[in-house]
Every structure is written in C-alpha cells, then in structure tokens.
Write a structure and sequence with these properties.
239 residues, alpha/beta, Rossmann fold, 6 helices, 33% helix, disordered C terminus
Length: 239
C-alpha cells in the first residue's frame, strides 16, 4: 500500500460514529452487522475453529460479538456465548442480537465458561474507563489463562485505544480486528497481536470532516492485514 494507513484517537472514532448515525443515517444496527460479519469471517479465515466462545459485554462491542456468534453458528461452528452482565442489562441493540441467538438456540450464559478452539473477545470496545471489574475482569483473566487463541473485536478488552496503555487486567490477544481505521494506541501495543482492519461502510466524506484523506482501503477485501501475520500464514477468505 503506497501510503500508511492513518490512525484515529478514541475521540475521533466517537465523532466518526456520530457522523455516521446523525448526519448520514447509517444506524448502529448496520455498523454492528458489518463488524460482526467480518469478525466471523476472520475467525474462519485465520483459525478455522470447530468451537468458539464469544465473550460479550453489554454495549456495542458486545453486540458485534453476538452478530459474529450468529454468523459462525450459521456456518456450522459450535458457539457458546458468555455474557459479562445479566441479559436484562444489555443495551437495546445488543439485546436484540441476543434475542435472535436465543431463538436460534445458541447457548448464552452469564459468567460461565467452557473449553473451545477459539475465544472471541467482545467485552469492552474503545470506551474503556478504569480497570475492568467484576465478571468482566474475571473473564479477561480466564481468557488469558485458557491456552486458547483469542480474537479481539476493535481492541483487546482493557487496552486504551489512544495511549496504548493496558489496564489491569487486559486481554492478551492473538489477533485483533479493529474497525474503520486503526486506533493509534493499537499500533505498538503488544497485547494486540496481529492487527487486522475491517470495513464497516464508512464513506470517505466522514474522514474528510477531519481533514483526512484515506485511500480506498477495502477495494479488494472487506478485511485487510495491517501488521503481524504474513500472507503465507493466512489462507484465503471463503467467498
């Protein structure tokens, strides 16, 4: 790629989300679907798991994980969802995604874990505030000690996406799939592992509002590698 991919701070990513929803009418449900579908695709491309645990928080990051759970289940993967909060504490859009999974009879439990080929980390997105607590803290600790590879959505839970500073605890990801553009704190943090970037359908005009000129990153694929794995280590995405 001829030009480096620019990065965003947390504040800039919040503004991207605001412009998408308020100015363009691209709703959270649409962005969440794009994120979760791409997350499932990367899980299959990179790990080819027979079984997956999706650790889901109550917000938008958790909702993206729940979308991934649906797509993986539809592809024949054995999926278990582990919630960091009781189901009745999920936000409106994540709660909608969970209701779909429940109708599909995908198991979902609060705080309970089991073994799996892959763990998907969708506990905390870019809105980290302080050290993870309660069941979120416990699930991060469990994932780090599980021995299974971990695929994080947008950022490893517990990592500040602007400074790259890790909270206690912080997920030690094997692969991180971030969204739209890389967050600046992910570029050097060892907790990120391999860094991949996924399209959530952000138009160029959104970045132009920041004075940023962004190349057509997703002309050939909706998921691209930023750093980490070599092409020889990754098989082609099923199309």
């Amino acid at each position: 790629m001829s030009k480096p991919i620019p990065g965003l701070t947390e504040q800039q990513m919040r503004e991207v989300d605001r412009i998408m929803v308020d100015d363009l009418g691209i709703e959270l449900m649409q962005m969440m679907e794009n994120a979760g579908r791409n997350l499932a695709a990367l899980a299959l491309r990179r790990f080819r798991p027979a079984s997956v645990i999706v650790m889901a928080g109550p917000g938008g990051n958790g909702g993206g994980g729940l979308v991934a759970a649906r797509h993986l289940a539809n592809r024949g993967v054995l999926v278990h969802v582990v919630l960091s909060r009781p189901a009745d504490e999920l936000g409106g859009v994540p709660a909608h995604q969970l209701a779909i999974l429940q109708r599909m009879r995908v198991p979902s439990l609060h705080g309970s874990t089991t073994e799996a080929d892959l763990i998907i980390d969708a506990l905390i997105g870019y809105s980290l505030r302080g050290d993870p607590r309660g069941d979120t803290r416990d699930l991060i600790g469990w994932a780090n000690q599980s021995g299974s590879p971990v695929l994080s959505l947008d950022t490893p839970s517990g990592l500040n996406v602007t400074t790259g500073e890790a909270a206690t605890p912080c997920v030690q990801a094997t692969v991180t799939m971030t969204l739209a553009l890389p967050k600046v704190g992910l570029l050097e943090a060892p907790q990120v592992g391999e860094l991949w970037l996924a399209d959530i359908s952000v138009p160029p005009s959104v970045y132009a509002a920041f004075g940023m000129e962004v190349a057509n990153l997703f002309a050939e694929d909706t998921i691209i590698r930023v750093s980490g794995a070599t092409p020889e280590e990754v098989s082609g995405l099923d199309r």
